[in-house]
Amino acid sequence: MSWVSVLSDRPTETQLPKWSKKTLFSKRKHSDEWHHNIDFLAGVLRPSDSKFPWILIKKHTDHYIKKKGKISQAEIDVRLATLIERHEARDVAIAACAHAISPTGLRALLNVELNVAPATYYGLEMYLQSLIAANYCSPKAVTGLEVQWARQLLPYAKHGAGVAGRYLEGLCSALRAIDTPNMNVLPDFAILARRAFKNFATQLEGYKLRSQWVSAQAAVGWMSALARTTPAVTPPGHLLPEHVLDAQFPIWRIWVAWNPNTGRTKSLA
């Protein structure tokens, strides 16, 4: 065999394995790029923060849509809904996309039953942040009253033990601070309230059955404080927290009237 034939049989360039070409030279998906960019921009900020980068974060969504060519609003809604559902920080994703989604499509994404877990209320804080984001970008999808409530409830939205009582405390705080005609104008918050009243009643009943009076006293403390600030006259057209408690948890006044011997309950704990 001649040297010419040997050399001609050799590859003229270094051959890379197929997997290495794909890994090294393939372009990043538009969706992956979008997820990375909005996370980088938002950092630790959330829609309730005054320094949240609204303008910059929305530009990445506009750029993503532009790369998809001419597509209908319905197709945009579907594509952006998919991005939001696959993004861990859903509130940030909504902040980035809400301006480009139809109000009806955006409202469908804000389904409280799908976003807030039963019992643990995991996801409540992100849901409230999502309402703030949606209203900022699309006021037709989320009302100003809902946003007022969302901001009022944020300090009470930590999930974990006693979360139902904290939500109800926040609800009563919102009713005290915000002029609300009735809960029908806030259907999602009303759904959470019904769930919380049921969970809170179960929690108190458990304390009673197990004679955990110290825990029970701590759990109802906010109701006692509420009762001390009840206005003498109800403002016309204004729903008071007492009205909601009377309707959905009528024994709350019994718990408020309960005046245990603190020293004795602690000794029995």
Structure description:
By secondary structure, the chain is mainly α. The chain folds into two domains: 24-143; 161-269, no CATH class. It is built from 17 helices and no strands. α3 (30-42) packs antiparallel against α4, α5 (73-85) runs antiparallel to α6 and α6 (90-97) packs parallel to α9. The protein starts with a helix and ends with a helix. Residues 1-8, 10-14 and 16-26 have low confidence and may be disordered.
What is the gist of this entry?
The chain is mostly helical and 269 residues long. Helix content is 64%, strand content 0%. The termini are far apart.
Mean pLDDT: 88
Oligomeric state: single chain
Number of helices: 17
What general outline do the C-alpha atoms trace? elongated
> If you compute it from the alpha carbons, what radius of gyration comes out, rounded to the nearest whole angstrom?
27 Å
Name some characteristics of this structure.
269 residues; mainly alpha; 2 domains; 17 helices; 64% helix; 0% strand; elongated; disordered N terminus
Topology overview:
Elements: H1 3-9, H2 18-25, H3 30-42, H4 54-67, H5 73-85, H6 90-97, H7 103-109, H8 112-115, H9 124-137, H10 144-153, H11 163-177, H12 187-209, H13 213-219, H14 221-227, H15 241-248, H16 252-257, H17 262-268
Helix pairs in contact: 3-4, 5-6, 6-9, 9-10, 10-11, 11-12
